[in-house]
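Notes from the 1:1 (GR / supervisor)

We went over the backlog. Supervisor wanted to see one worked example end to end before approving the batch request, so GR pasted a single chain during the call. The sequence is below; no edits were made to it. Supervisor asked that the structure be written out right there so they could see what the output format looks like.
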Amino acid sequence: MRSQAPARQRKRGIRGRRVAWPAEPMDDLRQSLQSLYLAAVYEVDVPGGRIAFRIGEAIPRLAGQAFALITAYNPGACRPSPAENERRNAALERRLAEAGHKVLPGRGRDVSGDHVEPSFAAFGVTLSAPRWRSPASSARRRSPGSTEAS
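Structure output shown during the call:
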């Protein structure tokens, strides 16, 4: 007999919002990436210091300010060269600024700090905002055999 489990399970997200995670079984790579994202430490450089947090933690210093921490580094399972990662991240920063978002530097890292991915805290970007891809990622999606980017 099949379980009547809900289609999605809910987990607390940043600032107490509920974030949906698929309830169906995930492949090993996706499970591994999800575990890494949930264990990671995220940082935003703000005037006067740096704020560190994890998914699900409150961020009192940024209370009431909607933002997304976004990077163009190492999309999914892809591992572009350091130069390509830097180029993509610079293009992402330009695109966020052109869209009128206040942007602060940030990063996502593992607990040990051995793996760090430069990121941007883009204020005004919310879960309900339209999703868009960088020009580099859109071009790659149109090119068969190219690496995936987000």
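Supervisor's comment: The longest strand covers residues 102-109.
Batch request approved.
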